[in-house]
Amino acid sequence: MAMDIKEKDRQYIMHTYGRYDVALKSGKGAVAYDDKGKKYIDVSSGIGVNSLGYCEDGWVKAISKQAATIQHMSNYFYCEQASNLAEKLCTLTGMSKVCFGNSGAEANECAIKIARKYSFDKYGGDLKGVRNEIITLKNSFHGRTVTTLSATGQDVFHNYFFPFTEGFAYVEANDIQAFKNAVNEDTCAVMFELIQGEGGVNILDKTYVKELVDYCNAHDILVIIDEVQTGVGRTGKLFAFENFGIKPDIITVAKGLGGGLPIGVCMCGDKLKDVMSPSTHGTTFGANPVVCAGANYVIDKVADKDFLNEVEKKGIYFEEKLLAVEGVKSVRRMGLMIGIELKKGDAHDIAVKCVENGLLIITAKSLLRMLPPLVITYEEIDEAVAILDKTLKENNQ
Prior knowledge:
Blueprint: H1 5-12, E1 24-28, E2 31-34, E3 39-42, H2 45-48, H3 57-67, H4 80-93, E4 97-101, H5 104-123, E5 133-137, H6 146-151, E6 168-171, H7 176-182, E7 187-192, E8 195-196, E9 202-203, H8 206-218, E10 222-226, E11 250-253, E12 264-268, H9 289-302, H10 305-323, E13 328-334, E14 337-342, H11 347-356, E15 359-360, E16 362-364, E17 367-370, H12 378-394
Parallel strand pairs: 3-15, 5-6, 5-7, 7-10, 10-11
Antiparallel strand pairs: 1-2, 2-3, 4-12, 8-9, 11-12, 13-14, 14-17, 16-17
Helix pairs in contact: 3-9, 4-9, 10-12
């Protein structure tokens, strides 16, 4: 007898994820179906990736057309889809140059390399380098490569894979004095998320962010904003830094930009545009034409002001509905990036029960986390909240 999807997975795929007991087979918009035909409302979007939901018609057409034209080329050649996407991103953000990769971790690796090379070139260096330390925030998350794990400010990730990359220091968020105390002659950059997604949907204080950026600008310390999870409309602005009234030196983007295909982008401002030169960085699949075609379509849709205004309206509506649920203690939210604190009970256990009831939801630390498709309808929001309410009641929460 042939093995089913789950059996094959368990036998042949490394157990690096604690999977929910669901095998997804198809989807449209914010709705997914498993291999048995069961319907789910998805408020996770593949952890913020499916920004336009499952299989949006225009996106499917864009990538299909490009796949039938030319599906891949070496980065030794010019790519129309990549250059068009780069122009859009630079125009929309005020950045000057971009470097394409395949993931948020890759984008953050590129940002780290740019920051260190900038200081190496400007301030001089030897084999050990000089002015090469990057400060990050505790509870941050920047990726799962050895270097981006090192950049991540959570002790739980600093295990097993020794030796980790050197050159990172960690400070508490929203404490400007702690940051200033950590700066020394070796500090070249600070890297942080404006909303710590994996760290618990922690929204940074706007006054703190502004003061930190002003201090860095005055001391030629580069500001790297990790927008892997917060970018591409997630917070009601095209990029989260717009909500904070700052301009970073470097922005990293991934997840929602590709609409479901793997992409990572590192963008830099004018003073960094010539730091990287041929052979200092590269990636085989970065700037893939099919992926860039999908990203071009996503950007064209999401960058529209009316679209972004609707994201914020949906976020407000979601928050109001969630706060009316008996078992919900509080909601942390910006746009459609939502963290839900429960009055009691374990968030992971509740998430498992929600999935059983037809709601695909994830967690962050002790919170339930929602990153719904930006195109989720108000009716689907109502359905999602109703399932959560039902689940909490069933589990005496």
